[in-house]
Structures are given as C-alpha cells and as structure tokens.
Amino acid sequence: MNKFLSVIGLMLLTGILPVSGQPVKSMGKDTSAYCISQEEVILYNLVNDFRRQNRLPVIPLSMSLSIVSRTHIDDLLSTKQQDKECGLHSWSDKGKWKPCCYNKDPMASKCMNVKPFEITGYQGLGFELVYWDEGTASANEAYGLWTQVDASRDMILNTGKWQFRAWKAMGVGIRDGYAVIWLGDKPDLPANIGICGKDTLIQIRKDAAANIKPQTRKEEAKPANKELAKVIPTKAGEKKPAQNLDIAANTKKADVTVPAGNHFFVIVASAKTEELAMQKIKELKSQGYTDAFLLPSSERFRVSLGSYSSEHDAKVKIKEMKYRFPDCWLFKN
After folding, report:
1. Nearest to 186, CA basis, from 203, 210, 170
2. How deeply is 3 buried, as exposed, middle or buried, from its count of CB atoms within 10 A (0-12, 13-18, 19+)?
3. Element (H, E) at 281
4. Residue 152 CA to chain centroid, in angstroms?
5. DSSP of 8-48, one letter per residue?
6. What is the total count of domains within the chain?
7. pLDDT for res 114
8. Which of 92, 152, 202, 243 is placed for a possible disulfide with 259 were both Cys, Cβ 3.0 to 4.6 Å?
C-alpha cells in the first residue's frame, strides 16, 4: 500500500504550465566535485537501459538535477508528505524555494517544474518521479514500479503526453525509503561527478548507459574507438588507458579480446557451441545490449555483458542486471 502512494502522486501530474512572474533567486552550486552512490548509479543505468531497449537515446547524468533529487528527499524526510494531504511532489516552506502543496495548489505543476532553477540555477524545466517505501528504497524496486505504471513508463520513454518532449538531463537520488529521478528538457552544464567513497569520475558512453565505470580523477582515459570504447576502473594515480571491450556479434568465429587484468565477468547465458552463443549475442545486441561478447572456454561458450578487474565492481553490475537477467552470475577467470 505504501508503495502505491508514490504511484498516486505520479498520476496527479498534469500538463506543463508556462513560467511567469519573478523567478526565485538561485542558490547556485559548487561544480568542483559531486558524487553519487553505487545504488544511484544503478538506478540511472536501469532507466537508460530501458530507454535503450526501446531505441531511445541515453539521457546524460546531471549534477544539477541530482542535487535537486537529494534536496527533495531531505525535504520529504523532514515533512513526511506521504502522511499528509499533499502529494509527494510537494515542497515545504523549510528551504530556499517556493513551497507548494501538489494535491491542492492549482499552480503546483509550475511549482515543480521550476524547482531545479530555484535550487541550482538549471535553465530547463524539471519533471519528477518519486518512489517511497516504509523500508529502504532500492534502485530495482523503484525501476520495477515505474516501468509497470503507464504514467511513469510514458514519462521515461517519451510516449503518450510526453511524446513531444526530449529529455536532455537526468538527476538521481536515493536515501532511506525514497528514490527520486528528475528529467530535464535542457542540457546541464558539464561537471565532475564521481562515485561516493572513491577517487573516481564517471564517464558515460553515449550508446550504452549501463556500462558506466569509474575513471580516475588524475588520469583521463582516451578511448581507442570513439563509438565502442569503454572506461576501465583504475586505482587512483594508476595510468591505465581504456581499451575496447566490444565484440562484434555475427555468426562467424568470434575474435575475443579481453583486457589484461580483467578477471571477473558478468555472465548472462552459456551454450555448448559457439554458434548458439553467437546467436544469443546477436539477439542481445538487437535488444540494445551492444556490449555483449563471447567468453569461450574448454567446456562452454559463455555470453558476458561486462568484464572487470575488481570483484566488487562486477558484483555491483550483477546487482544492477538481476532485474532483467535473474540468472546472471559472476565468473572468475
């Protein structure tokens, strides 16, 4: 029941109202450094993978909208809107923004749309999805609910009433029982975004959001292939250029190249013959998983969606993939 409350809040979304009147002065933001958690990375990836499977472009990660996501979670935690008449898209009078009750205020849609500008100075309009649970929110649970409800599914995929909008930025936030994403119609300013607790920066592939991997702040990797290259995690200060991990999916003999030092693989399928494995890879690539590749062995031909030098990074990937590939597992070579 409590999970359903977030759906009700979402379904109250109405059309976009034009901005008028005097804007609230922006609080501004420090662009020198910002980090998101592993769970927030997973949520960001899940949403973009869903879009990719539906032939839609990846939405760039936005520091501004991520700040707004966390700010709203803090406000919701302090005001507990889920226990009141106002919806989860409401804002209290406890911060440097205009308060509004989303269920009662006729201008609530406009109030929500301009929150990114009020809080960070973001120049576009913002649109929010909120998930709430009495327990601890997770990326998979929020993603599962949003993709099962027509209103949120349409918003993510730009269908229905959202078909004339194009998302140019996305922010994520997860804390306690809340998971929040903000979608924006304008690109955000470039900013360094890292993974919290690690001396790394996040680099996003335009063709495959699910392959976000950390890049050291001290060493900027140069992709060997502009379209297919990935970033390989390295320790702080270690010089290790990115290498191309993508394997072409065809019915010919596979040319498998695994980066030196990567011994942990996320396996989503295995087959007795190379031909069957390559058919599976072709199928995955047609569904948008362009990073699928073949990992042969003396006994089986395994299909992998990622290789890692760190067991921890591989396990994070598996946690992310479990929703779509329940039987995926970790293979150590």
Report:
1. 170
2. middle
3. helix 274-286
4. 15
5. HHHHT--PPPPP-SPPPPP-----S-EEE-HHHHHHHHHHH
6. 2
7. 94
8. 243
Q: What angle in degrees, to the nearest 10, is found between the helix axes of 139-148 and 311-321? A: 20
Beta strand segments in 116-263, E: 126-132, 169-175, 178-184, 193-195, 200-203, 213-216
Q: What is the pLDDT of residue 327?
A: 77
The edge-to-edge listing of strands for the beta sheet with 329-332 is: 293-296, 301-308, 264-271, 329-332
Q: Note whether 177 and 267 are same-domain residues.
A: no
Q: For position 63, what pLDDT does the model report?
A: 95
What's 194's DSSP letter?
Answer: E
pLDDT for the residue numbered 283: 80
Which pLDDT score is estimated for 208?
A: 43
The answer to the question of residue 127 being in a domain is: yes
- 293 lies in which domain range? 243-333
Sheet with 126-132, edge to edge strand ranges: 126-132, 178-184, 169-175
- Dist CA 125 CA 122 (whole Å): 8
Ramachandran angles phi, psi of 86, nearest 5°: -80, 150
pLDDT of residue 84: 63
CA dihedral 68, 74, 80, 86 (to 10 degrees): -20
CA distance 176 to 143: 16
262 and 165 in a common domain? no
One-letter amino acid of 266? V
Q: Domain holding 266: CATH number?
A: 3.30.70.1070
Q: Is 240 helix (H, G, I), strand (E, B) or coil?
A: coil
User: Pick from 150, 154, 155, 171: which is nearest to 67 by CA?
Assistant: 171
Are 173 and 249 contained in the same domain?
no
Q: What is the pLDDT of residue 258?
A: 60
Distances (CA, A) of 205 to 45, 49, 190, 276, 289: 11, 12, 15, 28, 13
Q: Is residue 218 part of a domain?
A: no
Residues 20 and 117 in one domain: yes
Cβ atoms of 156 and 147 within 8 Å: the answer is: yes
